[in-house]
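Is this the right way to post structure tokens for a design question? Let me know if I should format differently. Anyway, here goes:
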């Protein structure tokens, strides 16, 4: 059994912090030397609750494996200084989309560097069966890209960088979307060298809890703007999007792998006890706390190695995250949220798009769109986006009398997509699947 000891870490730790944080050490150059974190430990009551829920799930036949693939709608609040799109703090769409892609790789064990997991832990590294999509519908039901760009000047907010206190007290409450339907991520310049922080999942069955639990005005994740995504404006050490992977792990109930104590406990029996956090890119094995011959699992996303050296979650970590998704307030409702689906576009019953069909569905790659009562002249536009909102196909062709159009999508990978059809009489959106 791993010891539960609260380690008072040096002056770089944020004593009394109320959130899970990743922090850059003081800089002598543009690249931080390593990460330091001042994460408070979760109360023992939370761990007892977690243990009871896991045991109850196992007793009912759920061994911790997700029986469904969870898809969590995300809104990314980009806080900027009035910068042009893609300049400075106002990150480009491509940079935001690259972060969503990283999350979908890391939480599904689709990351290319998963092959680097040492042989002894390849059977422990798992697909967490959690997907992320940029929201396509905002809280009012209107269409959205899932990227909420906020000019702090027009809000009369203080100039960046922002302290955690300011973000939690001012920025979050004045920009947060419904926490029952969205994972809120704020991307902005942070003071104090922080790479990011997250709120832990609340557990309404517990009383007397204090600390970094999410509320309706604070729940979510905050990431330093130049540690978000893998393309665009990035710090060279944190350029693979793993800061968000790590912080969302906290948001889903994971502790740091060293248990925030000297040879501490992260309550996952398949992660070795280790002395403390690892920085940079250690050599394997890194033996501490008598955990030889294999040593620390420093390549775990919940350690503090550099982005290129994080590439796995463990089976027990997955069990904790699935337990949170199936039992805690805010998280439970996300699985039922319809925010990943675009708003229904009302089609006039007299419009030519009222009698539209797409087939076959699923398709192996060629999709036929039939506008049975094609009347309009001009062009018909077809736009296809994937589940994270990235455009993957766009074509405009002259309208034809037959109303029959074939889209060659054979270059797209398997999965779900949305096709938007536009004519002079309006537009319509349909969902389809590519399966081979």
């Amino acid at each position: 059994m791993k010891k539960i000891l609260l380690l008072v870490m040096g002056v770089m730790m944020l004593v009394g912090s109320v959130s899970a944080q990743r922090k850059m050490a003081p800089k002598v150059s543009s690249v931080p030397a390593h990460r330091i974190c001042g994460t408070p430990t979760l109360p023992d009551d939370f761990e007892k609750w977690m243990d009871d829920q896991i045991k109850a799930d196992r007793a009912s036949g759920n061994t911790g494996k997700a029986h469904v693939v969870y898809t969590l709608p995300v809104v990314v609040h980009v806080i900027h200084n009035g910068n042009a799109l893609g300049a400075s703090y106002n990150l480009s769409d491509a940079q935001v989309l690259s972060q969503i892609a990283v999350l979908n790789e890391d939480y599904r064990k689709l990351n290319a560097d998963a092959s680097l997991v040492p042989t002894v832990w390849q059977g422990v590294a798992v697909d967490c069966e959690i997907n992320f999509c940029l929201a396509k519908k905002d809280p009012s039901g209107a269409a959205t890209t899932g990227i909420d760009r906020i000019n702090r000047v027009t809000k009369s907010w203080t100039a960046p960088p922002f302290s955690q206190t300011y973000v939690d007290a001012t920025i979050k409450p004045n920009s947060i979307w419904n926490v029952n339907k969205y994972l809120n991520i704020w991307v902005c310049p942070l003071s104090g060298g922080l790479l990011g922080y997250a709120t832990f999942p609340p557990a309404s069955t517990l009383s007397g809890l204090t600390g970094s639990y999410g509320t309706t005005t604070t729940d979510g994740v905050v990431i330093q703007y130049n540690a978000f995504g893998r393309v665009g404006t990035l710090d060279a050490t944190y350029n693979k999007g793993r800061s968000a992977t790590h912080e969302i792990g906290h948001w889903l109930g994971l502790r740091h792998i060293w248990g925030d104590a000297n040879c501490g406990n992260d309550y996952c029996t398949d992660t070795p006890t280790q002395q403390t956090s690892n920085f940079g890119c250690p050599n394997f094995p890194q033996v501490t706390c008598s955990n030889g011959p294999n040593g620390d699992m420093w390549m775990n996303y919940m350690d503090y190695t550099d982005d290129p050296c994080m590439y796995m979650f463990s089976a027990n970590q997955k069990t904790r995250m699935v337990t949170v998704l199936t039992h805690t307030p805010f998280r439970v409702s996300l699985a039922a949220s319809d925010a990943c689906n675009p708003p229904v576009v009302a089609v006039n019953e007299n419009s030519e798009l009222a009698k539209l069909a797409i087939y076959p569905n699923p398709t192996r790659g060629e999709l036929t769109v039939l506008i049975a009562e094609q009347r309009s002249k001009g062009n018909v536009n077809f736009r296809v986006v994937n589940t994270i909102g990235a455009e993957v196909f766009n074509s405009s062709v002259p309208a034809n009398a037959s109303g029959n159009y074939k889209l060659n999508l054979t270059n797209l990978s398997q999965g779900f997509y949305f096709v938007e059809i536009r004519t002079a009489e309006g537009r319509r959106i349909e969902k389809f699947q590519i399966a081979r």
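Format looks fine. Someone answered above. Worth noting: Helices lie at 44-59, 93-106, 164-171, 242-251, 315-327, 331-334. Residues 1-19, 25-31 have pLDDT under 50 and may be disordered.
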